[in-house]
Amino acid sequence: MEKIALSPAAAAILGRLEAAGFPAYAVGGCVRDSLLGRPPHDWDVTTAARPEQVLALFGDCHPVPTGIAHGTVTLFWQGEAVEVTTFRLDGPYRDHRHPDTVAFSDRVEEDLARRDFTVNALAYSPRRGLCDPFGGRADLQSRLIRCVGGPARRFEEDALRLLRAVRFAAQLGFAIHPATAAAMDAAAGLLSGVSGERVLAEWRRFLPCPGAGALLARFGPLFWAAAPALCPAGGEEDGWLAAAEAVEAAPADFPLRLALLCLAGPEEGAVGRAEALLARLRPDRRTAGEVTALVAAAHAPIPRETPALCRLLADRGREGALRQVALWRATGRLSEETAEQLTGGLLSLLERGVCLTVRELALSGGDLLALGAVPGPQVGRLQRALLEGVWAGRAANTRASLERLARALLKEEALLP
Ligand code: ATP
Ligand code: MG
């Protein structure tokens, strides 16, 4: 019999449930990952015990009734959290996302039947072995994502499964079974009803995976249904295919790859597409800001000289500047060699501690007033000009050198009409 090494918490919880007479199994992703030889990131348990029985049996494990209506109780065993869910049958689905009702069951096979893919419909107990009524083990060996049951109905029930299918295919490096893939093509439109928050959560995990580009190319309409901003106008797919290729070639970075998708299609619409995409996905401000800046600068002149490189670092920070170079490389505006030179140039400026903000200047705003600057906007203008002067090598970032430049700048300003 196949043996899986359970986590200490999962082993202890299964042992106690079984000792109390309740069949119990580790289930889903942890079993799948264990059989693949990947370390599971968390352990889920499924059992015949009802939620109130789980609460009563594990009073010493800080039980939290996280989803009591759906049968889920979270337990903490020596600091490790485990979700314990009662065997469950899902009733008919409302809104293509949530079952109207759930009913508890006494049979693990019924619980596995509601799960999305065969490789996720695996349960294991040290006492009962592997429970695999849908051929999940064989699909793990053939490296296939395949729906449990009729795929059309399963995607109809819950459209999020469309995004989970591509995400698991990318994460595991699996192919999608032809019948499942065909049902995905047919059901793609249902994704318009899935919340942007869920799309974002899936894409955060999907986009950085190797192989994401091939799935983007194969399932274009599915991604366009999830985020209509990405849909190429007039079914013009060449731009999308080029973007999918760029994604594949780019570093495994979420904002960068999202920006590349916005660049599919006409250049002048890219910023608008990014805005619409971000309005749908609503990522955190940092991510949104990064995507916007990357797209806005995609077609801008590429910095070559030191002042322009400093300006890029000052405007975008280290991460943002390096990402921008990676984007220019991925869209083919830079050769590998030039991209490396540019990256090297940025890193060496940072290493040399180049001054990137007015706060780092050896001359303060107060000093400028003492030199005769007019309080108000002129001070900020002069500080920025000093910064540019340092970048251009017109001054060193020392008091004396900046004072000299400031005097010259003040004289120039005085000469202006
Ligand atoms: P990972 O945690 O690595 O993303 P996982 O397989 O554990 O993978 P979860 O989202 O944590 O995925 O879900 C746990 C299990 O619950 C899945 O393995 C699957 O059996 C089931 N499941 C989750 N979401 C769905 C869904 N939308 N439809 C059907 N079954 C689902
Ligand atoms: Mg999980």
From TrEMBL:
UniProt xrefs under CDD domains: NT_ClassII-CCAase
> Which Gene3D superfamilies does this chain map to?
1.10.246.80, Beta Polymerase, domain 2 (3.30.460.10), cca-adding enzyme, domain 2 (1.10.3090.10)
Keyword Nucleotidyltransferase assigned? yes
Tell me the PROSITE patterns matching this sequence.
PROKAR_LIPOPROTEIN
All copies of the tRNA nucleotidyltransferase/poly(A) polymerase RNA and SrmB- binding domain together span 173-213
Q: Select a single GO molecular function from the record's annotations and give it.
A: nucleotidyltransferase activity
Q: What keywords were assigned to this record?
A: Magnesium, Metal-binding, Nucleotide-binding, Nucleotidyltransferase, RNA-binding, Transferase, tRNA processing
- Listed cofactors: Mg(2+)
Q: Which domain of life is it from?
A: Bacteria
The UniProt entry, under InterPro entries, shows:
Bact_CCA-adding_enz_type3_sf, NT_sf, PolA_pol_head_dom, PolyA_RNA-bd
A GO BP entry:
tRNA processing
Q: What residues does the Poly A polymerase head domain cover?
A: 24-146
Q: Answer whether the UniProt record assigns the keyword Magnesium to this protein.
A: yes
Report the family membership: Belongs to the tRNA nucleotidyltransferase/poly(A) polymerase family.
Q: What is this protein called?
A: tRNA nucleotidyltransferase
Q: What is the lineage of its organism?
A: Bacteria, Bacillati, Bacillota, Clostridia, Eubacteriales
